[in-house]
Amino acid sequence: MLELVARVLLSLAGAVAEWLLTHLFYACGWRVLRLLTLGRHPRGPLRTADAMSARSSWVAALGFICTVGLPLTILVFLYG
Prior knowledge:
The protein is mostly helical. It has one domain. It contains two helices and no strands. Helix 1 (about 1-35) packs across helix 2 (about 55-80).
């Protein structure tokens, strides 16, 4: 019984983390891409229902790079 409760809680935590991080990375990538292309791309809205569609996943990947990859790269070059 305890294992079932733990499995359900971990599944729920994973779903919440996936939703939160997906929308966080999409929003960050959307803003960066909008800035880099001077407002031409992405054509979709900032608030989207499916942030992991085929087109939106590239925007989320750029957001991941900007949110996680760029600061880590800077820290490695400065202190590594």
